[in-house]
Structure formats: structure tokens, C-alpha cells
Amino acid sequence: MKIGFLGPQGTYTEEALAKVFSPDEHEFISYPTVSDVIEAVDAGEVDKGIVPIENSIEGSVSETLDHLAFDSEVLIEREVLLTIHHHLIGIKGTTASEIKTIISHPQAYAQCRKTLKKVFKEVKVEPAFSTAEAVKSVSEKGDCKVAAIGNAFAAEIYGLEVLIRDISDYPDNTTRFVIIGKELGPRTGYDKTSIICFIGDDRPGKLLEILQEFSYRYINLTKITSRPTKKKFGEYLFFIDMEGHLEDDHIKSALACLRCKLPLVKFLGSYRRSS
Amino acid sequence: MKIGFLGPQGTYTEEALAKVFSPDEHEFISYPTVSDVIEAVDAGEVDKGIVPIENSIEGSVSETLDHLAFDSEVLIEREVLLTIHHHLIGIKGTTASEIKTIISHPQAYAQCRKTLKKVFKEVKVEPAFSTAEAVKSVSEKGDCKVAAIGNAFAAEIYGLEVLIRDISDYPDNTTRFVIIGKELGPRTGYDKTSIICFIGDDRPGKLLEILQEFSYRYINLTKITSRPTKKKFGEYLFFIDMEGHLEDDHIKSALACLRCKLPLVKFLGSYRRSS
């Protein structure tokens, strides 16, 4: 099977993928952006893909939600939770006092800012598009004055060393990834269903009516978040995750009622919960 | 009055600030991050501050919401809407065919990707921490092969030229900024109130109960969004904007009822609506 992932080699996404699919049995193909991964699955270039959807510190990954909402017909087939361990990575044998510049994805740096401030009085921070790219670029420079924030997986791939372990300011840092494809996940009795509700007009009170459909059927929601429609300022759509499977009667009936009330309800998949 | 803004000079934030306060009458002080601006207001280093809170394409600005939720006691005193016009900016007289590298804040580039792909078959993209920094760095390099995505305001400040106007893929691109300080805005009869609801335990059904308090009093919500608590994966708090002022009886009573139900309701301010 061909599986697309958010690259380059050594990202947290590839690490999450390797947790559930073996690289010996499947072909992993790297794509530069979340949108490229999802487009490759839609186009049938790859059989499945994996992208991050939510992080316990940063919240939702907007690019993933927006692409699933507006530009794709793929389904979520599975979720994968990965604990994020940010390390300071550099050339083997480097000591902290040698480091003058840290290369980092801005979000990773933001998550480690307080810890790093304690270690480094003065250090320059240079941005990178991903943690894996930051690590790769330190490896290419081969300079002890430069270090990167990234994972142990990337340090190994690019022949570098973890200089300081676990530099995140938040001890519980988890990212939720989703495997996307074109199949409905089988009903396991311990499932989750994801949908998007397009509310249409300017009536935020409609959210109450949506929630009542779930409450009426004792459906537990695990997440609800809004995103702009990108058409008109102040207009939103809602991403809702709930416990249950599309083949469960109460879920089927809730979605049917919502479809009567709202201009569009997009089904994003039913899949086994990971906990 | 001293007013802190998200810098460096030439950001969209400074442009929004200049819409409502004159730089001739007040001292504008630049801070490198949203958190630094809010901290400066909390510490009394500046009288007021301005930060972006929401964009019509990208959604909420997480750093602003999180800092207001967890680390600050400032109030929102006013909102400012600014239409965002991204331009391609470079050395005067540069032609598109000369440009080999575009420096950009990753979000600005993401918003112009499709338009730029039509103009440039192959171009390298380098990340910057802000659009203003991208423009500044082109000015420092003084090289026709390099251009930046930014606003006309920054082009003028750094002595550069708008090479291609309005390169955004989205015609309606608006950012909502908030002026923060320590005062409750006066009741004008056309107001908005912002709060944060901490739900506490793992019962997403509680959101329904929250919304019923507003619906019962015919309070119109203009925005609702969730953010992770950063403590436990799957635990959220809700940011709610509503029409009305803290001094309106129905708003006061809704907040009082919510305080009885929830472990914490944080008041973020009442201020005149901008529309």
C-alpha cells in the first residue's frame, strides 16, 4: 500500500505513521504540505494518507480542517495519538555554551520558550517550515553553533544527537493524527464519528438546535470547534466529533435530523476511538 | 498615552492601530510577540495594547486567546476591523522574472499560494516571523532576486515598492484586532461582550446548558470557539462573544447563572461593536 505523509523525513507525522503501519510492508511517500497529502489521497496517487488534526497545546490544525471541509472527499479511517517530545538536537558532542542559533518551527519554539530561556541567556531563533526541516538544516550546516528543536526520530535520520532532552514547557503534549482514505471504518462498538455542520445564515442560535439533536439521543460529543467559512467575516462552520458509528441507529438518526435543519452536513468518517 | 503593538514597524497590527489612534498624539511601542504586548499592558509598562484576535481566513489567533485565558487580567476595550491586502513587495523597478525567492510569514504565503503559482513557475519560499520582517529583510538585502509578501504600509516604511498588488487568493480577507487595557468600555447600546467558560470536567454536554442560558434571554452569540485547556488532551474551554454590555440586565443575569453552573467564567470585556 502507498501511504502519503506530511514530510520531510523525520516529522512527528512520520513517527505517528510508523506506529500503526510498518515501513517494511508499505511504501511511505513524503509530501511538503498537509494539503498535498490530502490531494494525493483524493487523486488516488496514494491509497491512504496521514496528517495532524489537533494538538493538546496548539489546538486544531487549521489547514487540515479547512482542506477536509472545502476541498476534499476523503474520509477519516483511523486516529493515532502521539506524545510529542521536543528535544534540542545538534552535532554530536556539542555543549550548550557553544550554541548561538536555534532553528525551529515557530510553534515548536513557542512550546519550549520558557525552558530555553532558562538555559540560554541570549540565542538567535531562526524559523523553519517544520521540525524535521530544522533538524535537516542543522545536519547540512554541520556547525556546532547551530541547534534545532525536533524529535529523536529526526535526530537519528539526520545523524545528529539529542543534546538536551524534553525541553517542552508543557509536560502533556499530545498530537492527534488521522489516517485518511476512501473507506468507512468498520463498526467496533468503541467508535467516533466526525462531521462538519454548515450553518448557512447569520444565526449563531442554530448551534443550540444542533446540540439538542445530540443531547436528545444521549450522544456524547468529544469535540466541537468553529472555523470561518472564508466567505464572510463572522460566518462559521462547526466541526463536531461524537462517540458512536454511522451504523449506530442513534447516530444515523441524529445526522438525518441535522440534514433536515441545515443547508449542509458533511460526513467525515466513523472510526475506532484511540484513547 | 503609551500603546504597545505587535511589531516590528509596518505590521498589519500597526496599520490597525493607526486607524484609531494618531501616532502624533500617542507613543506607539513595538513588541516582538503577542504575549509581550499583553504582558506589557498587565505590567503597566504601556497604557493600552493592540493584538490580532481573529482572521476571516485563518480563524482565531491562538496565542492571543491563550494568553488572555491563562496569563492575563487585561480587558478588551475596543475592536478594530482591518481589510488585509497582501502585495508582492520588492526593490523599486524589479520585474517578476527577476524574482527567485519570496520571503513570507507562512500564513501570508498560504493565503497567496494559488495566485503566486500562476505568476511564478519556480520560486523558493523562505519563512519569516511576520510580514513586516519579511519586507524589512528584503530591504536589508537590497537584492532584486528577492521579494516579500506584505502590506503597502510596510513597503513605504522600508523604502520598497509594491510590485504586484492584491495577490491574496481570498478577496474578503479581514482581521479583527482588539485594543486591550484595564478599563470597562462605556455602554453604547451597540456593544459586544467577550467571556471564557471553563467547563471543568469531561462533559461536553455542558456546552448545551451554557448555550441555553443565552437562548433563554434572546442573547445573540456572534462567535463561539474552543481551545484546549493545555492540561489534559480532550479538555476544552470556550470563548464566547455575544451582543450586549455587562451593564445590560440580561447579560449580567446570564453571566451570574453561568457562574453558578461552571467552575470559572472569565469576563474579557464589553466594548462597542465594529461592523
Q: Can you walk me through this structure?
A:
The first copy, chain A, folds into 3 domains: 2-84 and 173-181, 3-Layer(aba) Sandwich (D-Maltodextrin-Binding Protein, domain 2), CATH 3.40.190.10; 87-164, Periplasmic binding protein-like II (D-Maltodextrin-Binding Protein, domain 2), CATH 3.40.190.10; 191-272, Alpha-Beta Plaits (2-Layer Sandwich). In chain A, the strands form 3 sheets. In chain A, strands 1, 2, 3, 4, 5 and 11 form a 6-stranded mixed β-sheet that branches. In chain A, a hairpin with a 7-residue loop joins strand 13 and strand 14. Chain A is built from 8 helices and 15 strands. The first copy, chain A, is elongated and about 65 Å long. With 275 residues, chain A is α/β, with parallel strands linked by helices. Chains A and B meet through helix 7 and strand 13 of A and helix 7 and strand 13 of B.
Task: Give a short overview.
The first copy, chain A, is an alpha/beta fold.
